[in-house]
Amino acid sequence: MQQQTLESLYRSACSSYSRVPNPDQCFAWESVLSKFRLDEIGRALVEWQADVTEEYDGRPRGKTFPSPADLAVIVVRNKRINTAQRQFTPCNSCDAGWIRVFQGTTVAGKQIDAKVGALRRCECWWEYLAEYYGVPRSELAAKLAKLKRDREKRKRAA
Ligand SMILES: [Zn+2]
């Protein structure tokens, strides 16, 4: 199967709206949407297409080609809903937030047995946790370390 990219998603959106892809517009999609996961953008596109809210010209919203900002609004809204419901939605390339790796080292620093492999948290899980704790992904490790310290402090105090 061909690897899906934001550009291929844009192109398939164009073809479902019978539009000729436009490099400037493709660039706009990339600059607005590249911070989101492809599966999230794909879902947002499907939701947009199903939107029957009447526009000022009387046409259902989903009949007009979405701007990248339109899709970004849906992605962000869905993330918020997921977080609110404490629902973790794994991406398509892992098993419920876990991936099996066959090289490198474990969290504890042990060499991974190439025959057995080891389970590692997928990036989608870390993104979900960052969202859950309301911190940027880059600050998640520090946040988790702090939570662990606080837990240990409470344990010592008890
Ligand atoms: Zn994943």
Radius of gyration (Å) = 20 Å
Instruction: State which percent range the strand residues make up.
Output: 5-15%
Helical stretch count? 6
What is the end-to-end distance? 55 Å
Bound ligands: zinc ion
- Spatially, the strands of the biggest sheet line up as 1-2
Rounded mean pLDDT is: 90
Q: Mind describing the biggest β-sheet?
A: 2 strands, antiparallel
How many structural domains are formed by the residues? 2
Order of helices and strands: HHHHEEHH
Shape type: elongated
Number of strands: 2
Q: Could you estimate the helical fraction of the residues in percent?
A: 40-55%
* Unreliable segments of 5+ consecutive residues: none
- Provide the structure class: mainly alpha
